[in-house]
Design goal:
This protein has 303 residues and is α/β, with parallel strands linked by helices. It is built from eleven helices and 13 strands. The strands form three sheets. It has a six-stranded mixed β-sheet with strand order 4-3-5-12-6-13, sandwiched between helices. The protein has a five-stranded mixed β-sheet with strand order 9-8-10-7-11. A two-stranded antiparallel sheet has the order 1-2. α1 crosses α4 and α2 packs across α3. The longest helix is centred in the N-terminal third of the chain and has 29 residues.
Length: 303
């Protein structure tokens, strides 16, 4: 409990956000932090108006806590494997596009080998998942590979490319036109990812190149909200095609026939050190599903 609180506070830099991540009340988390500081005999986090940050003692404790948590989680996984026989467990940190597009498709089309794999999926953004991977809270990250903000020892493996397209529901009036122009698209309200996401930056760059105005666009961090708008109204969105892979496969959404500027958007996996048996099994399933999606032109080859 003490180790997890130290790790969560360093990761989230806020008592409120750390308490939400650990699903405990803020007063309970504050009491646990006080216990740790009493054990150590010194303050380990500096309080400031925007949250907390570790001091020199806190930085040392955080590094040690993460190593210990990693060891504990590895031991738990090994014990689970002993009790479950051939069952292998892996904790996957999924970036939004992978969480809503690639992983559901993978699980829906998984082969017999995947029957021995138990997957726990945690959705989050890159700046949330990297610390979780470093601390051992998750085993692997799946999704868009953005350049690291600072050097680390993590392994990044490109598996596919995530092209962006304009999409709308299958019976959208735009599909009745003999040819769709940018001016035609501009007549409808755009639904875009929020400015708080890295995906939004890529989308904005493409829309600027197309000459589409976004001042009146609806923005959201919720993929579910965006999808509901697209399916229930005459909205148009610019998103990585794989984000709506299920809807494209079911023909509830279609890609608008508008040429979209192409830019590399590499995606794949991030992990620490060599992959274990569960990681290798997940990688094989990812590669199999990516090959299927390439045939459907939903993703592109990373070669």
């Amino acid at each position: 409990r003490h180790l997890r609180v130290i790790d969560a506070l360093e990761q989230h830099k806020s008592l409120l956000r750390a308490s939400r991540a650990l699903r405990v009340s803020q007063p309970a988390l504050s009491r646990t932090l006080q216990e740790v500081e009493e054990i150590v005999g010194a303050e380990i986090f500096e309080r400031h108006p925007r949250g907390v940050r570790p001091n020199a003692t806190g930085a040392l404790l955080t590094a040690g806590a993460r190593k210990l948590l990693t060891t504990i989680r590895e031991l738990e996984a090994q014990l689970d494997q002993l009790s479950d026989g051939q069952k292998r467990t892996i904790r996957v940190g999924a970036l939004p596009v992978a969480a809503h597009g690639l992983l559901p498709a993978l699980l829906a089309n998984a082969g017999e080998q995947a029957a021995g794999l138990a997957i726990s999926v945690i959705e989050g953004k890159t700046d949330q998942m990297i610390p979780a991977l470093l601390s051992g809270e998750i085993d692997i990250i799946v999704g868009r590979l953005y350049p690291p903000s600072q050097p680390d020892d993590l392994v990044r493996r490109v598996l596919y490319d995530e092209p962006i397209s304009l999409v709308a529901r299958s019976d959208h009036p735009l599909f009745d036109l003999p040819a769709v122009t940018v001016a035609d698209v501009q007549r409808y309200t755009l639904v875009l990812p929020s400015v708080s996401t890295l995906m939004e930056r890529d989308v904005r760059e493409i829309l600027e190149q197309l000459g589409l105005e976004t001042d009146a666009a609806v923005q959201s961090t919720s993929v579910g909200f965006m999808r509901e708008l697209l399916l229930s109204g005459t909205f148009v969105s610019a998103v990585p095609r794989i984000l709506v892979a299920g809807d494209l496969a079911r023909d509830t959404m279609r890609i608008l026939p508008v040429a979209v500027p192409s830019a590399p958007r590499p995606a794949g996996i991030i992990h620490r050190g060599p992959l274990g048996d569960a990681g290798k099994l997940l990688l094989a399933e990812l590669q199999r599903e990516i090959a299927r999606l390439e045939e459907s032109d939903i993703v592109e080859s990373a070669a």
